[in-house]
Amino acid sequence: MDALCLLPKVFAWEVHVDVLVLSSGGNLLDSLALALCAVLSETLLPKVDVIEAMEEGEDVQLKVDDRPEAGMRFPMKQLPLCVTVAEISGKFLMDVTSEEEMCAEAMLCVVVDGKTGDVIGLHKLGRGLVDVSAMPAMLERCRATAAALAQQPEAQQLQLGKRKMI
């Protein structure tokens, strides 16, 4: 991601996220993706100026301005929303509980960009096989679900980087 690069091949922001899950009622990946989008949309990166070496053999230096008003918002080009689909008795269910997850024959986590509606990732969860012939309809339903989620006021604030802390 070019926006995180301060000096090509030398300095770049590296982002690590640790998550502690205290309990889960189902749809864990969906909830985590939304939480991470919320956190990153509120993240401010300090302003960093790269000071080139004045003499040969001298190291490049960084000057950090840690004032919040000087910082920039974390660059989020996409709004990755996870929509998990579970197959139970030949039916595809969304927004399943943890009990329904345990009964699922197969599960698929579809990642949709909430800004564009593009499917940007797929992850097969658990045991079982996903019916490939049902994939096109399933993906369209996931895109529609993500679009509806992106239309929620909270998601719109995430996209605009204007989320307010309570």
Explain what this protein looks like in three dimensions:
The chain has 4 helices and 10 strands; from the N terminus they run E-E-H-E-E-E-E-E-E-H-E-E-H-H. The protein is of the alpha+beta class and 166 residues long. Strands 8-7-9-10 form a 4-stranded antiparallel sheet. Strands 1-2 form a two-stranded antiparallel sheet. The longest helix has 16 residues, at 135-150. The two termini are 30 Å apart. A hairpin with a 2-residue loop joins strand 7 (80-88) and strand 8 (91-94).
Brief overview:
This protein is of the alpha+beta class. The protein is built from four helices and ten strands.
Q: What labels describe this entry?
A:
two-stranded antiparallel sheet; 28% strand; exosome; Ribosomal Protein S5, domain 2; 4 helices; 27% helix; Exosome_comp_Rrp42_subfam; alpha+beta; four-stranded antiparallel beta sheet; elongated; 10 strands; 166 residues
CATH topology of the largest domain: Ribosomal Protein S5, domain 2
Class derived from helix and strand content? alpha+beta
Number of strands: 10
Overall CATH architecture of the largest domain? 2-Layer Sandwich
Cα radius of gyration in angstroms: 20 Å
The total of helices stands at: 4
Top CATH class of the largest domain: Alpha Beta
Summarize the main sheet: 4 strands, antiparallel
Q: Report the order of strands and helices.
A: EEHEEEEEEHEEHH
Q: Strand order within the widest sheet?
A: 8-7-9-10
Instruction: Kindly report the name of the CATH homologous superfamily of the largest domain.
Output: GHMP Kinase, N-terminal domain
The whole-number mean of residue pLDDT values reads 85
Which regions have little confidence, pLDDT < 50, spanning 5+ residues? none
Family: Belongs to the RNase PH family.
Protein name: Ribosomal RNA-processing protein 42
Main location: cytoplasm
InterPro entries: ExoRNase_PH_dom2, ExoRNase_PH_dom2_sf, Exosome_comp_Rrp42_subfam, PNPase/RNase_PH_dom_sf, Ribosomal_Su5_D2-typ_SF
